[in-house]
Write a structure and sequence with these properties.
The chain is of the alpha/beta class. The chain has 2 domains: 2-280, no CATH class; 306-343, no CATH class. The protein has helices spanning 2-9, 19-22, 49-62, 73-79, 83-91, 100-108, 122-136, 149-160, 180-192, 205-213, 228-233, 241-246, 249-256, 258-266, 273-299, 305-314, 319-327, and strands at residues 36-39, 42-45, 66-71, 94-97, 139-144, 165-169, 196-200, 221-224. Helix 10 links the parallel strand 7 (196-200) and strand 8. Helix 5 packs across helix 10 and helix 13 packs antiparallel against helix 14 (258-266). The N and C termini lie far apart (60 Å). 31% of the residues are buried.
Length: 343
């Protein structure tokens, strides 16, 4: 847990919009209902990187399985075409938002709890995660990457963070459920009994593999992490983290690999227009309903109506006696009588 506290102390200014955000640390250990939102038809969680770590650590300590997923524009595009991927998100216990533009849309469309610092993915919490894993002796299994790449990344991680145990297997095998190679991979994971299983085979392959094999896997925290170990091994170069907070990491990646990522960043987002319109309409309808409820609540008389409100203040005394009592003067004696109360 010391790693979590140190992570909060060392959180760079680039990860929060201003110093006031830093003053909100330490983070909340209990979630608020408004931190789980419905955005573009999907359920997502407004979590900071340190809250993700707290969630993982709590599940590991309890020995309870969990799935930590993430959403971005690419996942929203794929969901319309892949029911297996949709099923994976229904299994997820925590869903990070790996997209500053999505967070901007959330705030613009009325979800005021959304902030830039809620944008998080593996690269945002990787140092604190491995520190925490080393301190607690976690066993981590990474499944994915080309042969040799994950092993190189694991060696670098275990050198930088002594105490953590990292096992790996490349992602180039027959992933068909029931195949011998797939069964061998699941068996290898079972032998390690990892506290955390990272699957990095690209979206949606990694998510559908998790869904298809979840029941056969040991109880652990499972995360789809894409090219995480490609970055760790130096095969791919990660964008500066401040670009992610500005919502420009996609541009860095597009310039670095235009042939592979052009469609993802320049074509797919345009197919989400109908979701934006639908989301806007639903949000406006909820806000109008909430405002209408507030107006009805303000206009509704208190129990007993205006006569009751007056009686609550004055009782059955004359106006002169009431004014005297309010001013702190002696109340003149008067015969008991019924008084017609007015609003």
């Amino acid at each position: 847990m010391a790693a979590l506290l140190q992570f909060q102390r060392d959180l760079p200014m680039a990860s929060t919009p201003n110093s006031a955000d830093r003053e909100r640390l330490p983070y909340r250990l209990s979630r608020r209902p408004e931190q789980r939102i419905r955005l573009l038809g999907q359920t997502m969680d407004l979590v900071r990187p340190e809250e993700v770590l707290h969630f993982i650590a709590a599940r590991v300590k309890r020995g309870a399985p969990a799935i930590v997923a993430n959403h971005n524009a690419h996942s929203l595009y794929l969901l319309r075409r892949d029911e297996a991927l949709a099923g994976f998100y229904r299994l997820a216990d925590l869903v990070e938002i790996d997209s500053t533009p999505l967070l901007m849309w959330a705030r613009f469309s009325g979800r005021r709890s959304s902030q830039r610092f809620h944008r998080c993915t593996y690269l945002d919490w990787r140092d604190a995660f491995w520190t925490l894993a080393a301190e607690n002796g976690w066993r981590v299994f990474y499944l994915g990457g080309a042969p040799g790449v994950a092993a190189l990344a694991a060696d670098r991680i275990m050198t930088a963070f002594p105490g953590v145990e990292v096992s790996v297997h490349h992602g180039y095998f027959d992933r068909t459920p029931g195949s011998d190679e797939n069964a061998a991979v699941v068996e290898a994971v079972g032998r390690v009994q990892p506290h955390v299983l990272m699957v990095g085979m690209g979206m949606p392959i990694q998510e559908t593999w998790i869904s298809a094999n979840l029941k056969a896997l040991p109880p652990c925290v499972t995360l789809p992490v894409g090219a995480a170990f490609d970055y760790e091994a130096g095969v791919q170069r990660a964008a500066p983290r401040w670009l992610g907070q500005l919502g420009l990491e996609w541009l860095y990646r597009l310039v670095s690999d235009p042939s592979r990522l052009f469609r993802r960043y320049c074509v797919e987002p345009w197919t989400l227009g109908h979701l934006l319109v639908q989301d806007w309409r639903e949000t406006r309808a909820r806000l109008r309903a909430a405002r209408g409820s507030d107006r009805r609540s303000d206009a509704a008389p208190s129990p007993g109506g205006p006569r009751r409100r007056a009686e609550d203040q004055r009782g059955t005394v004359s106006a002169e006696a009431f004014r005297s009592k309010a001013a702190g003067r002696p109340v003149p004696a008067e015969p008991k009588r019924d008084v017609a109360l007015t609003p």
